[in-house]
Specification:
The complex is a heterotrimer of chains A (293), B (277) and C (444).
Chain A (H helix, E strand, L loop, with lengths): L10 H29 L1 E2 L8 E2 L3 H8 L1 H32 L6 H9 L6 H12 L7 H6 L10 H29 L3 H9 L4 H12 L1 H18 L1 H7 L11 H11 L3 H30 L2
Antiparallel strand pairs in A: 1-2
Chain B lengths: L1 H30 L4 H5 L14 H8 L7 H32 L5 H9 L6 H14 L6 H5 L7 H11 L3 H9 L4 H12 L1 H16 L3 H6 L8 H8 L8 H32 L3
Chain C lengths: L1 H14 L11 E7 L3 H17 L3 E7 L3 H13 L6 E5 L3 H5 L6 E2 L1 H8 L10 H6 L10 E13 H7 L10 H13 L5 E5 L2 H12 L6 H4 L13 H16 L12 H5 L3 E7 L2 H8 L4 E4 L16 E9 L6 H14 L2 H10 L7 H9 L2 H4 L5 H7 L15 H16 L5 H24 L1
Parallel strand pairs in C: 1-2, 1-3, 6-7
Antiparallel strand pairs in C: 3-9, 4-9, 5-7, 5-8, 5-9
The chains are: A mainly alpha (293), B mainly alpha (277), C alpha/beta (444).
C-alpha cells in the first residue's frame, strides 16, 4: 500500500489535499452526521417533533425478518451484477484493444450506451422486455416461454440484474480499455516473442498488469450495484413481485423519500454505509497488497 | 493464418457486444422517426422511418410549453457537466498525488476520510445537502448545481491506483534531474495518466450531464433547467407522451456526450504512445 | 488553467439577468407541480390565463419531478425556510400534509379567512372535497386534478365474444361471466386485468360497498385508526379475482399504471383504470372501446355508493417573511381555478373530473358530453348517492407504504404463495404497524 520513493515536506501535500477535504467535509460529513443523528430519532416529515430514540430504529430493523432477507438478496444482486458487468466488459475491451479494422467505431458504439439518461434507459428496457408489448418479451411468450417478470420472482431478479449490469458494462469497458492501453506494448511483444499464446499471455501478463484497474472497478461496481441501481429497479419492478427484487437501497429510498420515514431510512443508510465500508476495507486488505507490488 | 482467424472471432464478439449493448441507443434513434401513437401502443419498430425527421425541428423550436428552448437547456447541461468533470479531476489528482507521493501527518486519515465518501448514496445525503446549500445561499444558483457533486472519491481512488503503479525509476530520475514535486506532477505524472484522465473525463462528463435529482431539487428558476430535466418533463405519467419528441430530444441530448467520447478517443491513443516510457 | 475560466464562466451565468424580467410591482407566486407532457402544457395554460386576467399577481408554475419528488422538494425547502407558495401533493400525501404544523402549511379555510377571499366548500363536489377536508367540513387543501376509477372495455372484444358492446357488465358476477366468454372465444389476449390494484380493487371497492377500509371513518376521525380491509367481503372479492386468475380469465399485470399500456394497445377485454386513461384512448387507440361505471357486488350492497378520488390537490405553504399580499395572491389564484369556465376547461382538456358542481354543469350545457360519450360517467359516479364515512376517501399516514405492502402480499397470492385471507391479513398487520409508527411520529 506504500510507495518506496517519496518526496519530502508536509506543507505542500496538506495544501494539495485541502480542496477535496473541505468539499468532503461540507458535502459528505455534515450531511452524513445529520443522517446518523436522524437515524436515532423519530420525526414527522417536516422535522417537527423530533424525538431521540437511541438505537430503536436499528434494533427494529435487525429484528425484522423481511429486512434480513433484503440483506441476503442485496448481496446476491451486487455480486451477480458486478461479475456480469465486469466480465463482459473485460472481454469486450480485450477484443477492442486489438489491431483490427473499425476498432474506433466499435469502441465508440460500446461507450455510447453509458450516455443515455438513466430515466430513459429504464423506459427503453420496458419497451424491450415487457411480457406483452416488449420487443423481446412478446416473442418469448409467443414461443411458449412463460416470460412475465410481473409475476415471476426469479425472472424479475434476472431482469433487474440484466438492466443494471447493462448500464455498467460501458463504464467498465472504458476503464478496462484505458488500463489495457497503459500496458507498455514492449512487455506484450516480449511475451509474444517468448512464445506465450493468447490465453496464456492474458493470464500471466495482461491480467496481472490490469490488477489496479480491476480492483478499482470491483469497488466501484459493488458500490454502484448497492447504491445506484434504485432508479432502474424501481422503474422495472418497483421491488416486486412481492419483495423479490427489493434491495436495500430500494428500501432506503422508499422509506426516506416516499414514505417519509426519516428515522428508519437514515438507520438503513447507516447500516448500508457501514456494510460497504467493511467490504471495501476487506478488499483493500486482501487485494490491495497484491495490487501495488 | 492464425491471425486472421482471431480477427474474425474478435469482430464477431465485438459485433455481438454492440448489438447487445447498443440496442437501446438504436431504439432511441429509430423511435425518434416513428409515430408517437404507434409507439404508445407498443409498436416500436427497430427500423427507422428515414423519411420522418419532423420530431427534431418541432422539439428544437419549442420543447414543451413553459419550458426553456432546448438549446438553452443544452447550454446549462454543458456548463454543469464541464464544471463537474473538470473540478472533480482537478481536486482528485491533487489529493491522490499528495496521498501517494508524500508522507505527512494524518495522511492515512486524510485518505480514508476522502475514500469513505463513496459509501453514502446521494438520495440519503440529499436533504441535508440541501440545507447546507441553503446556509451558503447557493440554492437556485448555477454554482449550486455542481459544487456538491464533485465531492466524491471515485476519481481519487482511480488516480491513487495509477500513481501507486508508477515505477520508482521515474521518480529517482526526476529527483536526480533536480525536479521538485510539482514539476514531477506536471511533466511526468499527468502525461502518464493521460488515458485514465481521458476515461475519467468521459465518465464524469456523462455523470454530470445525466444528473437529475440534485438539479431538480436545488434549482427553481427555469433558466437553470438541464436537458435531462427537460427530457423527463416530456415523459407523461398520467397522460399521453409524445414519444417521438421524447426520443428526438434524447438523441439531441446524446450528441454532446458522444462528441466528448469521440474527442477523447484520440487521448486514448495518445495515452498508448506515452505508455512507452 | 481551464478550470479557472470555467469557474468565471459559471459565475457569469449565475449573475445573468434571469431575475431582471420580474416586474418589481407584481406579487410573485411560485407553484411547484408534478405535471408532465400534455398535462404540463395545460398547467402552463392555466397559469398564463390567470396572469393575463389581472395585473397585480404573477404565478410561476415550476415542474419539480414526479409526485414523490415534488413533495420531497417542498418539504426540504420548507425545512430550509424556502418553501414555494403552492405545491401539488398527491392524494396519498394528504395524511402527512394535514398533520403538518402551522408554521409550514396554511390550510385553505384559514387562507380564505385571512385574505377575505371566498373559497366556499359548497362549490366543490362532495366526494372530491371530502378527501381534502377536516372532519367538520373545512377544506385543508384545494382540489385540483382529481380522477376516479372506471371500467374500460373493448367493444371489439365484446362483439367477438358474442357480448353486447352497448351493455357492459354492471355486477361482478357479470364481469366474471363476460371475462369467461372473452377467454373462451379468444376475443382478447387478456380477458380481464386491473391497474392500480390497491386503489381500485380494495380502496374503491370499500367505498362503493360502504365497507370501512380503516376504522375511525377511514382515518378521518383519529390517528389511532386501524385497517379493516380484511373483512369477509374483501376476502371474498380477492378470492374471486384469484379464482379468475386460476381460470385464466384474470391476469395480474403489475403495479400502479404499468398495466395501462395494455389497455391502449387493445390487448385487454375488460380493464380497470383511472378515468384519466380517456385521453390516451382517444388519441392512440386503434380499436373500439367503451367506458363504464365500476361494477359492484349486489350481495354486499343493493345500490353502490360513490367512488373516491385519486390525483392531487394544492397546498399552501408558509415561509418566514411571507407577506399578506402573497397569501392574497395565492387565494386569488385558487379562486380563479375554481371558476366554472376554468374548471370546465381543465376537465375537458385533461382526463380529470370537474371539481366544482358549476364546472360539471357548464360542461353539460356546452354539450361536451354529447360529443364525448361517457366522459360524464366519472363525475356521475362521484356524485351518486350520499357520501358516507366509508366513501369520503382515506386519511391514512404513509398510505404509499400501506399500498406497497398490499401490492407485495397480493402479488404473493397471485403467484400461488398464499391464500386471499392470508394476503389481506398480512397486509393489514404490516399496515397497522406503519400506522402506529406514523402516529408516534406525529404525537412526538
Amino acid at each position: 500500500m506504500e510507495r518506496r520513493t517519496v518526496f519530502g515536506g508536509w506543507l505542500l501535500p496538506i495544501l494539495l489535499v485541502l480542496p477535496q477535504l473541505t468539499l468532503t467535509g461540507f458535502f459528505f460529513y455534515w450531511p452524513a452526521a445529520q443522517a446518523v443523528w436522524s437515524s436515532m430519532t423519530t420525526q414527522d416529515a417536516f422535522g417537527a417533533g423530533e424525538v431521540f430514540v437511541g438505537l430503536d430504529n436499528f434494533s427494529e430493523l435487525l429484528a425484522d425478518p423481511l429486512y434480513v432477507a433484503s440483506v441476503g438478496r442485496t448481496v446476491v444482486f451486487c455480486v451477480t451484477v458486478s461479475a456480469l458487468a465486469m466480465g463482459l466488459a473485460l472481454a469486450l475491451a480485450v477484443f477492442a484493444d486489438r489491431e483490427i479494422r473499425g476498432k474506433g467505431a466499435y469502441r465508440t458504439l460500446l461507450i455510447w450506451p453509458y450516455a443515455i439518461a438513466p430515466a430513459l434507459s429504464s423506459i427503453l428496457f420496458l419497451f424491450i422486455l415487457d411480457p406483452r408489448v416488449g420487443m423481446l418479451g412478446r416473442p418469448l411468450n409467443r414461443m411458449g416461454i412463460d416470460w412475465d417478470y410481473h409475476l415471476n420472482g426469479n425472472q424479475a431478479l434476472l431482469t433487474v440484474v440484466m438492466a443494471s449490469a447493462w448500464k455498467q458494462v460501458s463504464y467498465n469497458f472504458i476503464f478496462f480499455l484505458a488500463g489495457l492501453q497503459s500496458i507498455p506494448r514492449a512487455v506484450i511483444e516480449a511475451a509474444r516473442m517468448d512464445g506465450a499464446k493468447g490465453w496464456r499471455r492474458f493470464r500471466t501478463i495482461t491480467f496481472p498488469l490490469l490488477a489496479p484497474t480491476t480492483f478499482f472497478l470491483l469497488v466501484v461496481n459493488i458500490v454502484y450495484a448497492a447504491f445506484d441501481t434504485f432508479g432502474t429497479i424501481n422503474a422495472l419492478t418497483h421491488g416486486g413481485p412481492g419483495k423479490d427484487t427489493e434491495t436495500l437501497v430500494l428500501k432506503v429510498y422508499r422509506d426516506g423519500f416516499i414514505n417519509q420515514d426519516i428515522g428508519s431510512s437514515s438507520a438503513q443508510s447507516v447500516i448500508l454505509m457501514l456494510g460497504v465500508i467493511a467490504i471495501t476495507a476487506l478488499q483493500f486488505r486482501f487485494m490491495g497488497k497484491k495490487v501495488t507490488e | 493464418m492464425a491471425r486472421q482467424d482471431r480477427d474474425w472471432f474478435a469482430h464477431a464478439m465485438l459485433g455481438l457486444g454492440v448489438v447487445l449493448f447498443a440496442l437501446p441507443v438504436w431504439l432511441v434513434l429509430a423511435g425518434s422517426t416513428q409515430d408517437s401513437d404507434a409507439i404508445a401502443r407498443g409498436d416500436l419498430s427497430l427500423v427507422p422511418d428515414l423519411t420522418n425527421f419532423s420530431a427534431y425541428p418541432r422539439v428544437l423550436a419549442h420543447g414543451t410549453m413553459g419550458a426553456q428552448p432546448v438549446w438553452h437547456m443544452l447550454l446549462v447541461s454543458l456548463g454543469m457537466a464541464l464544471c463537474i468533470a473538470g473540478g472533480k479531476i482537478a481536486i482528485s489528482i491533487l489529493s491522490a498525488y499528495a496521498v501517494v507521493f508524500f508522507r505527512f501527518p494524518f495522511r492515512k486519515i486524510a485518505f480514508w476520510s476522502i475514500f469513505v465518501t463513496l459509501m453514502l448514496p446521494v438520495e440519503v445525503r440529499i436533504m441535508p445537502t440541501y440545507s447546507v446549500m441553503a446556509t451558503f445561499g447557493l440554492i437556485n444558483t448555477f454554482t449550486g448545481l455542481w459544487v456538491p457533486l464533485i465531492a466524491s472519491a471515485t476519481a481519487t481512488l482511480l488516480f491513487r491506483q495509477v500513481f501507486v503503479a508508477i515505477p520508482d525509476e521515474l521518480v529517482e530520475a526526476a529527483r536526480m534531474d533536480g525536479a521538485g514535486p510539482l514539476r514531477f506532477l506536471k511533466d511526468i505524472v499527468i502525461p502518464v495518466s493521460g488515458a485514465n484522465i481521458a476515461a475519467l473525463f468521459v465518465i464524469l462528463f456523462v455523470y454530470g450531464w445525466n444528473q437529475y435529482l440534485w438539479p431538480l431539487l436545488v434549482a427553481t428558476d427555469p433558466g437553470l433547467d438541464t436537458i435531462v430535466i427537460g427530457l423527463v418533463k416530456m415523459i407523461g405519467v398520467e397522460t399521453q407522451t409524445d414519444w417521438s419528441a421524447v426520443m428526438a430530444t434524447a438523441v439531441l441530448a446524446l450528441l454532446p456526450p458522444v462528441a466528448v467520447v469521440l474527442l477523447m478517443q484520440r487521448w486514448f491513443v495518445a495515452g498508448l504512445t506515452e505508455g512507452e516510457k | 488553467m481551464k478550470r479557472r475560466a470555467l469557474l468565471a464562466g459559471s459565475a457569469a451565468l449565475a449573475a445573468a439577468p434571469y431575475a431582471a424580467a420580474r416586474a418589481a410591482d407584481k406579487t410573485k407566486i411560485v407553484w411547484w407541480h408534478a405535471m408532465t407532457a400534455a398535462l404540463g402544457e395545460q398547467v402552463q395554460h392555466l397559469v398564463d390565463e390567470f396572469n393575463k386576467s389581472q395585473d397585480t399577481v404573477e404565478v410561476q408554475g415550476v415542474f419539480k419531478g414526479g409526485y414523490a419528488d415534488t413533495m420531497n422538494a417542498a418539504i426540504a425547502a420548507s425545512r430550509a425556510g424556502q418553501a414555494p407558495h403552492l405545491v401539488q401533493v398527491f392524494e396519498v400525501g394528504t395524511g402527512t400534509m394535514i398533520n403538518a404544523p402551522g408554521k409550514f402549511v396554511k390550510q385553505v379555510w384559514e387562507l380564505s379567512k385571512e385574505t377575505g377571499i371566498a373559497l366556499d366548500p359548497k362549490n366543490y363536489i362532495g366526494a372530491v372535497r371530502g378527501y381534502y377536508s377536516l372532519p367538520d367540513g373545512r377544506m385543508a387543501s384545494m382540489p385540483f386534478n382529481s380522477s376516479t376509477a372506471m371500467m374500460w372495455y373493448s367493444k371489439d372484444a365484446f362483439k367477438k365474444a358474442g357480448l353486447d358492446p352497448a351493455k357492459p357488465p354492471t355486477t361482478w358476477e357479470d364481469v366474471v361471466k363476460a371475462a369467461k366468454a372473452i377467454k373462451d372465444s379468444n376475443a382478447a389476449e387478456i380477458p380481464c386485468t386491473s391497474a392500480w390494484f390497491s386503489w381500485i380493487q380494495l380502496e374503491q371497492f370499500s367505498a362503493l360497498h360502504n365497507l370501512p377500509f380503516a376504522s375511525k371513518e377511514d382515518g378521518f376521525a383519529g390517528l389511532d385508526t386501524e385497517l379493516k380491509f380484511n373483512s369477509k367481503a374483501h376476502i371474498a372479492h380477492l378470492d374471486r379475482l384469484i379464482g379468475m386468475a386460476k381460470d385464466g380469465t384474470f391476469k395480474y399485470t403489475g403495479r400502479d399504471s404499468t398495466p395501462s399500456q395494455l389497455l391502449i394497445s387493445g390487448k385487454v377485454g375488460i380493464h380497470f383504470d383511472s378515468s384519466g386513461e380517456r385521453g390516451d384512448l382517444v388519441k392512440s387507440a386503434q380499436f373500439e372501446w367503451g367506458e363504464a361505471l365500476l361494477p359492484f357486488d349486489p350481495q354486499v350492497i343493493k345500490a353502490p355508493l360513490n367512488s373516491i378520488i385519486g390525483g392531487a390537490s394544492l397546498w399552501t405553504m408558509t415561509a418566514p417573511g411571507r407577506t399578506p399580499a402573497e397569501y392574497k395572491g395565492v387565494a386569488e389564484f385558487l379562486a380563479f381555478i375554481g371558476k366554472a369556465e376554468n374548471d370546465a376547461y381543465w376537465h375537458q382538456h385533461t382526463g380529470y373530473v370537474p371539481v366544482t358542481l358549476a364546472g360539471f354543469d357548464l360542461s353539460k350545457k356546452q354539450g361536451f358530453y354529447e360529443k364525448n360519450v361517457g366522459a360524464d360517467l366519472p363525475a356521475q359516479q362521484l356524485t351518486r348517492g350520499t357520501v358516507t364515512p366509508n366513501s369520503k376517501g382515506l386519511r391514512l399516514g404513509r398510505l404509499v407504504e400501506i399500498r406497497n405492502n398490499i401490492y407485495e402480499e397480493v402479488e404473493k397470492a397471485f403467484q400461488g404463495g398464499q391464500t386471499a385471507k392470508e394476503a389481506l391479513d398480512n397486509a393489514v398487520a404490516r399496515g397497522n404497524k406503519v400506522l402506529r409508527d406514523f402516529q408516534k411520529s406525529i404525537k412526538a
